[in-house]
Amino acid sequence: MHMFSSRLLFSFVCCLLLITNFTSQAIAENTTQNYHYFCDDTNDRGNYTDNSTYHTNLNTLLSTLTSNAEIDYGFYNFTNGENTDKVYAIGLCRGDVKPGECRKCLEYSRANLTQLCPNRKEAIGWYEDEKCMLRYSDRSIFALMEIGPAYYAHNMLNATDLDQFNKSLSTLLRNLRSQAASGDSRLKYAVGNISTPDEKTIYGLVQCTPDLLGSECDSCLVQSIERIPIDCCKDSLGGRVVRPSCNMRFETGFLFYGPTAYTPPPSSTSTTSKGSIIAVAVAVPVVVVAVLIFICIYLRAKKPGKKYKTQQEEHDDDEIDISESLQFSFNTIREATDDFSDSNKLGQGGFGAVYRGRLSDGQMIAVKRLSRESSQGDTEFKNEVLLVAKLQHRNLVRLLGFCLEGRERLLVYEFVPNKSLDCFIFNQANRAQLDWGKRYKIIEGVARGILYLHQDSRLRIIHRDLKVSNVLLDQEMNPKISDFGLARLFVVDQTHGDTNRIVGTYGYMAPEYAMHGQFSEKSDVFSFGVLVLEILSGQRNSGIRHGENIEDLLSFTWRNWRMGTPGNIVDPTLNNGYQNEIMRCIHIGLLCVQENVSARPTMASVVLVLNSHSHTLPVPLEPAFYVDSRTGNLPGMPVWEFNSGTTRSSEYANKSFNEASITEPFPR
């Protein structure tokens, strides 16, 4: 009898465990304790050998992946190495995991993944209820929406009122999906709950890697949610779908996530009903702090013999102090560049020379050495350090550090091997290397980089000197925007600025900036439009020769667009296989260079239409600085591309303003 009771108790416990735990339905994945992982042995990525260059680069990258303490939003994406030995890595923590816990989770995952997938060039692992994900590869995995490998899991208990339960679940996940997709480049994460008619609560969580576009995040989550009635968790009280680019989970009756660890700054356009409450909650302490600051400054000013700094000066000094962790010694840079030898000199900019260097650990760098004679060098140096050190985006050149010793002012950048875009677009021999696919990727990448500056970065920045020579190309011809010496920081609600010092490169400067010193996001949009037309045509904006006549690119493009001969604009080295896409990009370029500031699109709109051909584009108006020297009327045009406008000649049409700093960290 006793043995029978023991067996009965054992059976009951086993059944209880089956009911309360999840059962996993994994696709191409393995599990060890709380760790799900996948070693790529299906896509012929190949192995690396122990102590090889790739192995060293992988270990270095993974060991330093979370070393940037300023990243407090749980997303790390970095690379290390060059050519076939280059390693890409992504670390992502669930939105409720605090920074310290996130770093520990990724460290644990690093040790696990490299042991479980020895010598594999590509691997991915998820640890402890997807608290963190780590993946690495020898191919670029950034900003790439991937849905596999994946694994699914579901609760063994089923819902009772299936119709109502599934309707409530669908509503919850649809709302969370929309919230996550609207997140910025730091966090695409949403949690929430919904009550069912039988008074049960469903808790949900969705997350994407924040380097995805909103539309890509939405698509990934849609595909995950669609698996619920198929592979995942049909009629279950809980389930999850976990993919490289996104994950989704829901549970009924218990809260499985904590408070969100990182909250992005609120949008200035927020119209939620909680807005006024939040405003009061924030305003009171802000006012108190402001009063205390005023009192401190007043008392400090009253001290005899003490000269106090302005708030802006103190802010600048504080920012330099924050950047001390990025500071290199002058001797380190001198050794890396072989004492700034001519053989390592890459180019000469407006405020100094650029040198190639190699650090003691083998990392290649590009060093911008500001000229000692430059009266503007200190200003540009400080501006570039304060802004660029805080920017992290795959389409921006990464600032590794700086040197500030005596009269030496040095900026240390990542080394970008494939020169700048103008070395390809305007070079007859190199131009053919850029087929339409590469050019479209460059256009799209530059658009995303500018959108990040305008909207998604912690700071809101106007570049003011976007041009082809400031777009560098990495090993895979991905664009990286460089040179932030002229960039200007905007506060949250600021829409435009004014300056008496017009700096930049004429031909790329918007008319309102060139003539009146007014700059805004739309002045960067104008520069982007010029850049797009140069990429499409292979022609510099400075002039296109037709016999004895020289015409600027904007006039040439507009004239051919109105005449119905846009094919004359396109670089002859491009084939005709992508005619519709090329014509659409010409259309986008013309919209960006319109004289009317308000008629130009935002960079968010540009990125949207570049990624979706279903959006209808408005008819472009006349570009700025348009000069039509011909007499007589233009021949008739198709209605879809015609728009009458006032022709005006700019008095600045033949003048040049170029006081810009030119950073060129690439080989010549």
TrEMBL record:
It is found in: Membrane. The chain crosses the membrane at residues 277-299. ATP binds at K368. One of its GO terms (cellular component) is membrane. It comes from the Eukaryota. Residues 1-28 form the signal peptide. It catalyses: L-seryl-[protein] + ATP = O-phospho-L-seryl-[protein] + ADP + H(+); L-threonyl-[protein] + ATP = O-phospho-L-threonyl-[protein] + ADP + H(+). Residues 36-141, 147-255 form the Gnk2-homologous domain. InterPro entries: GNK2, GNK2_sf, Kinase-like_dom_sf, Prot_kinase_dom, Protein_kinase_ATP_BS, Ser-Thr/Tyr_kinase_cat_dom, Ser/Thr_kinase_AS. Pfam families: PK_Tyr_Ser-Thr (PF07714), Stress-antifung (PF01657). GO terms for biological process: response to oxidative stress. It is a single-pass membrane protein. This is Cysteine-rich receptor-like protein kinase 29. It comes from Flemingia macrophylla. The lineage of its organism: Eukaryota, Viridiplantae, Streptophyta, Embryophyta, Tracheophyta.
